[in-house]
């Protein structure tokens, strides 16, 4: 290819698309390479029976006017074109077997406290302490508040080593309240002995500020960002898979794609799984200790997802999510299931409705699933025409798991089985193949309190002209990846200048 670019971005997930837009606004010449026909990674949607399903975006936080994600999307020029629906005040409901109550997680600090006080009238001080701790931990990272300051100061590193489960338990002695406050840990694949409280605080706080669904799916975010890239003179090539990243003298010289083309740039940004990136490096390798750090990083657990289209007029529509657990004492153990206990918990999410219809048309049910459960099919393919297709035993496995999951949901929503029009299933292999994650992990690498800094990837790599972006950088999710993209771009653009510009966009 004759064109030479300032920056080439490998992968068109949210991080890559946001980075491309930021850099284009600052005058960089940018190329985005995407191996698939669809852009957006976890932003992708699919349609079945004329209903739209999200693959990864079930709801988004901090999109209220003046809030952090609103400001960034405003700066990127897409906020006014997004079709959004605000969720109910009680946007998440936590429930347990043998307990008829549904405990709310609510938008707004006062609502959060007051709505839980209806169930825990003696726990006002505990709930106030919890909210205060959430705010304190959010202040560790100024960038997540669009404030100028060090991304992570040395004096706050110790707070990264506080376990989420232990901090929440310190707030109250009430075991049920502990379980309720911990009950949204599906949002970050929480692990009892590993997950830091700062992850819980950063993620959950964004939704307490405000919680939203994307009407007709999260893919609109990718489409709008791609449109802005084209309008600003950037270039996107789909169906273009990077097969080789050639390194010489500690710099990338070029990248080669599957069709044999070579692409050159001064700077490269990887928006693909860091472990996959390692497999593409040719010529000089990364220093062994850095390579081991990435290779040995543990992926977060994956998901078994059941997408249901529903018969009309049967299942009531709810503009909130449901997190259900079999046992309140095992809210941190959902990923440690056995064959006999699966699923120990699940999440139910409905697609947003534009009309005031009281009945649901589709439903998504997610449960943790280990990659090991599908590992024996990892060298097979889903396409019916491929000679090494996954086959009948894989389909049987999916159907058996779907029945187990439906059995559990039927206890919570009687009649759900008879309301199903059609069901569609994805496993960790689906996530691996379509989202480009190494083992189908939902949220990048596990953040580990015992190894807090080593499990925290920063954008700068040991290759001089290679930066990283995406869900393994800083924080996962729409909010985390978007903020992480600012962190990546701040390696090329002054961070304080960029933050000031984003904050001033809405004022202008």
Question: What are its keywords?
Answer:
alpha/beta, 508 residues, single chain
**Mean of residue pLDDT values:** 92
Q: Into which percentage range does the β-strand content fall? A: 15-25%
> Order of strands side by side in the largest beta sheet?
8-7-17-18-19-16-20
Summed up, the helix count is: 15
Helix fraction bin: 25-40%
Regions with pLDDT < 50 over 5+ consecutive residues? Answer: none
Give the beta-strand count. Answer: 21
Structural class, from helix and strand content? alpha/beta
Coarse morphology: globular
Biggest sheet character: 7 strands, mixed
Distance between the termini: 40 Å
Q: For the CA atoms, what is the radius of gyration?
A: 22 Å
Quick overview of this protein structure:
By secondary structure, the chain is an alpha/beta fold. The chain is built from 15 helices and 21 strands.
Care to describe what's here?
The mean pLDDT is 92. The two termini are 40 Å apart. The longest helix is centred in the C-terminal third of the chain and has 21 residues, at 392-412. The radius of gyration is 22 Å and the shape is globular. It has 15 helices and 21 strands. It has helices at 14-25, 68-76, 109-117, 124-138, 164-171, 175-182, 197-209, 219-231, 274-280, 288-295, 392-412, 416-419, 428-435, 477-489, 495-507; strands at 5-10, 30-33, 45-48, 51-54, 60-61, 84-86, 90-96, 99-106, 211-214, 235-237, 242-248, 251-257, 262-263, 265-270, 281-283, 302-310, 321-325, 345-350, 362-369, 420-426, 466-468. It is of the alpha/beta class and 508 residues long. The protein has a seven-stranded mixed β-sheet with strand order 8-7-17-18-19-16-20. A five-stranded parallel β-sheet has the order 10-2-1-14-21, with helices on one face. Helix content is 32%, strand content 21%. Strand 11 (242-248) and strand 12 form a beta hairpin.
